[in-house]
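Exercise 7b. Backbone tokens:
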């Protein structure tokens, strides 16, 4: 067979080689922070698609069976994430809606990503995601999660606070989390950036916060026009919802009683 899908299969369109590559992961997760940030970076840098990442463990969200997804011209393909490349800045971006569907599959994907990074000359790995708070955040902060003192020092230099927790506490989960110590153990500089988000709806404001934190580490300006437009649209919807809630509260506010006698029918 010329092509088959295994635990993690990369199908190359092009295979560039960087001198000092940076790899950014922006996948679907809490508040869709990583996914939207990844897509914004691709658009801002004009990155081109160079590969597809397939896995037998990729399942469409909330669907237990494998299948196909529609793309352009109503053509179908297998479930996949995509890898893009900006040759000017030597930045690779992995984006998509799929991660693992079992603990083992997450590690299989992480190993495949690290092997890819070794092959194409990546030195630094960054993962983006959301830090769920359960409440609406007006000005989201972005925290860093690292596995080495060297990476911790780089966060401090960039003015990005470290996400602190008691020893043994569960930290960043999914690929965004496990890639950080795995990458460090394999000689990569690695950092996870988590932006505060309510967590129950797509949050472009948190995605922008993650991108702005990444800018500091990459020492590269990344425009956020698309996210800014999404933020404006989201704020307008929130304003409508708040006004509707205010009107409902006024409508059902008990009027001042003129007669203390009550009568009932039924």
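Sequence design result:
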């Amino acid at each position: 067979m010329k092509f088959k899908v295994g635990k993690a299969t990369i199908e190359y369109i092009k295979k560039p080689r960087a001198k000092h590559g940076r790899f950014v992961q922006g996948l679907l997760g809490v508040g869709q922070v990583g996914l939207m940030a990844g897509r914004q970076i691709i658009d801002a840098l004009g990155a081109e698609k160079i590969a597809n990442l397939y896995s037998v463990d990729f399942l469409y969200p909330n669907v237990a069976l494998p299948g196909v997804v529609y793309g352009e011209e109503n053509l179908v393909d297998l479930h996949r994430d995509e890898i893009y490349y900006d040759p000017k800045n030597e930045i690779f971006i992995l984006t998509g809606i799929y991660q693992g569907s079992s603990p083992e599959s997450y590690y299989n994907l992480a190993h495949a990503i690290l092997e890819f990074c070794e092959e194409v000359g990546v030195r630094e790995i960054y993962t983006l995601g959301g830090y769920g708070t359960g409440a609406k955040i007006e000005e989201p902060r972005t925290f860093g999660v690292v596995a080495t003192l060297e990476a911790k020092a780089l966060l401090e230099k960039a003015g990005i606070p470290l996400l602190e927790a008691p020893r043994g506490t569960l930290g960043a989960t999914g690929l965004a989390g496990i890639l950080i110590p795995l990458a460090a153990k394999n000689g990569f500089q690695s950092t996870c950036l988590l932006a505060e988000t309510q967590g129950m709806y797509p949050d472009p404001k948190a995605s922008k916060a993650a991108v702005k934190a990444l800018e500091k580490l990459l020492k590269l300006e990344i425009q956020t026009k698309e996210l800014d437009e999404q933020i404006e649209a989201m704020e307008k919807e929130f304003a409508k919802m708040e006004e509707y809630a205010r009107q409902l509260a006024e409508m059902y506010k008990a009027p001042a009683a003129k007669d203390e006698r009550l009568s009932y029918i039924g």
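Instructor comment: The domain at 9-225 is CATH 3.40.50.10900 (Rossmann fold). The beta strands are 9-12, 21-27, 48-54, 68-70, 76-78, 80-86, 91-96, 122-132, 142-145, 189-197.
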